[in-house]
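Worked example 2:
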Amino acid sequence: MKKTAQTVISADKYYTITAANGKVVEVADYNTENGAAIQLWDYAGEEWQQWSFVRAGDGVYRICNRFTGKMLDLIAGGVVDGTWVHQWEGASGSSQLWVLESTGDGRVKIRSNLSGKCLDVVGMNQENGARLQIWQDVGGENQTWTVAEAKAVKKKAPVKAEPVKEEAPKAAKKPAAKKPAAKKPAARKAAPAKAEAAKAAPAKKTEAAAKPEPAKKAKAAKPAAKDKPAAKAEPVKTEAAKAEPAKKAEPAKKAGK
């Protein structure tokens, strides 16, 4: 393994603490509260992934997060294997004191000054989000760290992609304008139906008009029948006729008188 020079710690600089798998120590979800978890994640140049080393004695430091201002600390001041690490505001307790021990190849072991155990990755997890704990020294890769001065990471600005999102809604509005056109075919289909109804309507009227005509003729014939009794006045005899009956035949005179 290639040896590298040991980093010289300066009080006015910030550093990354990198695991053997290339991921760095950070405060989970950039949480600023006491008790926030400490985990591994890909380096993105963020301040919650950077640390300062505050000297507390000969080779002993408090490790302070740049973003939150809180210290690397042992949960409940634990000293047994498997005690998890979190962040907590600065205190005088030895659960926040750490010793950097060189491995001779440019890396270090970070030991708890309280328990003597090493900063370790839970379950030797290699994924983002792996939690940190303390464990007895086993000489494993998951207990060695590279402390190096933090470097800025150039990020691609995603602003250029935003105009594309704005144009997408405009394109979506165009199909909506085609909806009125769909109504025209429906109107054309309805028109023939109305024409057929209009044609059928006159036929009904013609039939209705034909029926009343015989009825009217029948009514006209009835009054003509009523006029016939008036013809009884015809037997009136003329005055000459009336006079005729008044004359009675004189009895024939007997001969001889």
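Residues 170 and 176 are 11 Å apart (CA to CA). The chain has four helices and twelve strands.
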